[in-house]
Structure formats: C-alpha cells, structure tokens
Amino acid sequence: YVNACEFSPDGSLVVTASADRTARVWNAENGTLLLVLEGHTSYVLGCAFSPDGKRIITASVDEKARVFSAETGECQLIIEGEHTDMVICCCFSHDGKYILTSSRDQN
Fold first, then answer.
1. How far apart are CA 43 and CA 60, in angstroms?
2. Which of 14, 65, 75, 92 is the most buried (most CB within 10 A)?
C-alpha cells in the first residue's frame, strides 16, 4: 500500500512511498511507472521532491532517509545515525539546500 505521495514541482511526475520498501516515480499524465527507488529495508513512510524536481527524498521505518536522482533513480545520499526510531516524514527547504526529517525518537 501507499503511505505518501507528492507531485513534482512542474506537475509532470508523482512519487509514492510504499510499504513494499520502495518509492516509485510515475508519469502524472498517463500513470506509467518510470522508476523504482530501492534500498530501504523497511516500509517507506514519506517522500518529497526537491524544489528543482531533480532529487527525491524518502523516509523509512529503517531509521534512514535517502536522496535519489529523480532522473536516474540512483541513490545519491543515505542519511543514517541521526534518528533512533523510524523516520516518519521528510522534505527539502524551499531553496533545496537543506533537508528536514522527523522521527518518533523526538530528535
């Protein structure tokens, strides 16, 4: 099942966060699956596009956040060790320079 979803800034793509440990990128117009973002070891709870639409961040029960290329699906960054419980949501700052995550660990 899908836990979260978001449109890209230009509205052409949709990213979904799923219980199958993946995030998926879809064509918003016709629903075609374009990319499967893999690497998390548990449910993916949150997802967001960067303001320029070039990156996607995901949040997971595995206590990690990951940043992927929205064009290739390549994982560019793993944020780990910052939380001691599931990462519930994530986002980029409006200028794309910063990442914000939240967790049940209250950190």
1. 6
2. 65
Those residues whose C-beta lies under 8 Å from the C-beta of residue 23, and which sit 6 or more positions away, are 15, 16, 17, 36, 37, 44, 47, 56, 58, 68
Could you tell me if 58 and 37 are in contact, meaning their C-beta atoms sit under 8 angstroms apart?
Answer: yes
Buried b (16+ CB within 10 A) or exposed e, 37-50: bebbeebbbbbbbb
Alpha-carbon span 93 to 98, nearest angstrom:
5
Give the Cα separation of 13 and 47 in Å (integer): 13
Q: pLDDT (tens digit, 9 = 90+) per residue, 12-37?
A: 999 999 999 999 999 999 999 999 99
